[in-house]
Amino acid sequence: MLDYKLLEALAAVIQQQSFERAADVLCLTQSAVSQRIRLLEERLGQPVLVRSTPIRPTELGQKLFHHVQQVQVLEQSLSTDIRPTTDSYTRLRLAVNADSLAIWLMPVFADLFHEHKVLMELMVEDQDCTLARLKSGEVIGCVSAQDTLVPGCNRLHLGVMDYIWVCTPAFAQRFFSSGVNADSLRQAPAVAFDRDDQLHVRFVRQHFNLTAGDIDFHMIPTVEGFIDAIRYGMAYGFVPRSQIRQELASGKLINPTPELKMPVPLYWHHWRLQTPMLARLGSLLEKAARQHLQ
After folding, report:
1. Which residue of 56, 57, 92, 143 is 20 to 30 Å from 240, comparing CA positions?
2. Structural domains of the chain in order of their starting residue, each with its CATH number
């Protein structure tokens, strides 16, 4: 049988990326947390953590972490059934993309908080990378552009986020006065959210036969800063149409090639394990997606 005090220590170390912070969360000494991890490894006969910087779980450690997260969700659901008026909160770990978080996810999380007393712990990644967090067991669900079905999980197609590439008229005059082509795109800087943001790379590869090495780009990892870089004429970039409707209508931003589309499908992936709270989250996501996605 597994000792859940030992598993709780393992989960805390993985989540906090530190024995010291894990000890604070568990109200234990750092030595006590280390002893619990060593005892767990002795009982299992193999390591559960790689003592690197940052600390990371072994393959077995990751499986145990996934398991203890599932147990915590079930315990929280059972506690709510037993004591429906309890003041305790449920913590929910999800991976989401920054644009969805900025545009349409927060009202969903607000409803979930008020109805089920859920505290959100969000990992914000590019929509092409969030699924890896679910596969590794770090999160219970994710919003992803990938449709790959993960074993032990369900998938729901939410809709399509309509991305368009835009820049200021002055930027277009400076870099695209002779047209949008491979040569002009080699000179025009783009803006990316981070190094995992590949929309601009896919665009120039698909339509202009260019590679990532052909493009210069700013890297600005906030939604506001990303759009401001475009507004201030520093770059062109790919933005959900719903975020810049006013700028498009006023002509402050333009799409130099409106015939070239970059639709991004989005999916909700989640553990097959279901509780009333998770079922409610799924229905809220589906309802919000119908309003904001195509």
Report:
1. 92
2. 1-87 (1.10.10.10), 162-264 (3.40.190.10)
